[in-house]
Every structure is written in structure tokens, then in C-alpha cells.
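pipeline: protein-struct stage 2 | run 1193 | DUF5683 domain-containing protein
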Amino acid sequence: MVVRLLPVLFACLFSLGCGSVFAQEKEEQDAASDSANVENRVVIDSIIPEKHTIDPLSPSKAAFYSAILPGLGQIYNKRYWKVPLVYGAIGTGLYFYVTNKDQYHRYRNAYKRRLAGFNDDEFYNIDGTPNEDGSPDVSMDALRRAQEYYQRYKDLSLLITIGLYALNIIDANVDAHLKQHNIGEDLTLRPMIIPNDFNAKTTVGLSLSFDF
């Protein structure tokens, strides 16, 4: 009876051993699968820094917008605080140009009427009381000098206004370039102080680093 039970006992022990081996292998496979999933999750959740993109047409666009309408390029560059400065500078130049032009035409019209033989211009009798000798309050020579004076400053005001208009375009173009300037950690320029092993002195210089 005992001899008959021995094969059955061996079969049961073999089955248990195989089952234990299969269970251990399954646990190792599950652990490896969990580890792979964890690694995948870490890779997915990792933050990849985005490189700074450069638009080569941005400076041209900013300059073009400022050429069409002063201050528009500054708005394109999001430098809104510069817009009042642009209009204040150009407006001041235009104000002096218009003022000098009006004064020039006043004296020029009076000078032309004097040449035509009229004595009714605004500079002939300014205070309303004629001179005893009948001479005008502002002579022909004074009218000519006034024309030259206001003509000169009229032209100067126009040149300054054109220069301010061009400066508005240049500012928008340069500002757009500077906004795209690489200031990241991949390109760094920093001062360095290195001890000199030969003469025991300190060497001062600059370090330029490129990281790829």
C-alpha cells in the first residue's frame, strides 16, 4: 500500500515544485513589467526644455511697420512705453517746422508786397502809429534777414524731423534683433580669475562657453 502511494506522492511534489517555479517566474515578469512602466512614466513626465526659436524676418517686419506708421514697430516688439516717446519726438520736430514755415511766409509775403509798391503789410506800421518820416517799422533789409533766419530753421527742423522718423525705424529694427539675442545658458560669457602657477599672481580674463 505504501509502495503504491509513493508515485502519487512524488507526482504531487513535482507538481508543487513546478507550480512554485512558474509562480516565481510570473512574479519576476510582472516586476519587470512594472519597472518598465515606471521608467516609461518617468520619461514621459520629464521636462524637455524648449529651444529659443528665432524669426529672421522679425526685424524686417518691425522696421516695415515703423516705416508705415511711426510707433507701430515698437508695438510689434511689445515696447509700448516707447510709443509716446516716438510721437513726442516727431511731433516736436513737426511743431518747430510748421512754426518756422509760418513765420517765413509772413515775412516773405510782406517783402513781396513791398517790392510790388504796397505799404499795407503787417510789419509796415506795427503799433498803428505811423513814423514821422513815413518809414516802415520793419525795413526791407530786416524783412530779408528774417526770411533767411526762418528759412534756415525751417529746413533744420525738417531735417531733424526726418532724422527722428528714421531713428524710429532703426530703433524698431534693432530692438527686434536684441529680443532674439541668445542669452541662454548654452552660450555664456563670464569673467574669470585664475591663479597663475608660474609667477604666483592672479590672471584676469573672460571665459566663453558653448554647450551643445
